[in-house]
Amino acid sequence: MHDRPPVDITPDILLKAYAAGIFPMAEDADDPTIYWVEPRARGVLPLDRFHVPKRLARTVRSDGFEVVSDRDFDAVIEGCAAPRRDTARTWINARIRDLYGALFDLGHCHTIEVYHEGRLAGGLYGVSLGAAFFGESMFHEVRDASKVALVHLVARLRSGGYRLADTQFLTEHLSQFGVEEMPRHIYKRHLAAAITERAEWGPPDQVFRGAEALAALGIGRAEA
């Protein structure tokens, strides 16, 4: 259990929390309260060492998915909040949805949408602050859709001049892409530097081809 006194969290407070290395979660979708999290070890994706497995690179290059950004925030967060096979609970409650929806309207929250045969097959969302990006959640309805979203996300971050990609935690799933753990005090130094710089997310709702994303990551055809 967590000590969670009620707090009126505004988008401005939420951005200040991210700048301090703190992010919110809820116990489950039905719990209206929010608590703050500050991990002792932070999951960080080194943008210059992002690893794309060869099979995934071939999938990305094949353009079997249509990938865009910032097209449908509501559908993406709905997908992220849906129960999954490995767990019936979600940490995304109504307040989380509203807060990140407000950040989206302010240009501080972004989505990657992945479509297959005209339907949303997967995606992710996260927070952008200066040259730091904080990945929040991802989902997939079709195999590899969330992985394709991640590849396109990192391509955008690299192309836009981002300096820090925060995954919050290190998981077995994320480790295959090169995500590492960083002690809190070191993470905060990187965070403080990144949020003072500028980065560009890029045009919304623009279709990016797989070859373009891989090229932004320095992956040529021979490597895929």
Automatic annotation (TrEMBL):
<protein>
    <recommendedName>
        <fullName>Leucyl/phenylalanyl-tRNA--protein transferase</fullName>
        <ecNumber>2.3.2.6</ecNumber>
    </recommendedName>
</protein>
<dbReference type="GO" id="GO:0008914">
    <property type="term" value="F:leucyl-tRNA--protein transferase activity"/>
</dbReference>
<dbReference type="GO" id="GO:0005737">
    <property type="term" value="C:cytoplasm"/>
</dbReference>
<dbReference type="InterPro" id="IPR016181">
    <property type="entry name" value="Acyl_CoA_acyltransferase"/>
</dbReference>
<dbReference type="InterPro" id="IPR042221">
    <property type="entry name" value="Leu/Phe-tRNA_Trfase_N"/>
</dbReference>
<keyword id="KW-0963">Cytoplasm</keyword>
<keyword id="KW-0012">Acyltransferase</keyword>
<comment type="similarity">
    <text>Belongs to the L/F-transferase family.</text>
</comment>
<dbReference type="Pfam" id="PF03588">
    <property type="entry name" value="Leu_Phe_trans"/>
</dbReference>
<dbReference type="InterPro" id="IPR004616">
    <property type="entry name" value="Leu/Phe-tRNA_Trfase"/>
</dbReference>
<dbReference type="GO" id="GO:0030163">
    <property type="term" value="P:protein catabolic process"/>
</dbReference>
<keyword id="KW-0808">Transferase</keyword>
<dbReference type="InterPro" id="IPR042203">
    <property type="entry name" value="Leu/Phe-tRNA_Trfase_C"/>
</dbReference>
<comment type="function">
    <text>Functions in the N-end rule pathway of protein degradation where it conjugates Leu, Phe and, less efficiently, Met from aminoacyl-tRNAs to the N-termini of proteins containing an N-terminal arginine or lysine.</text>
</comment>
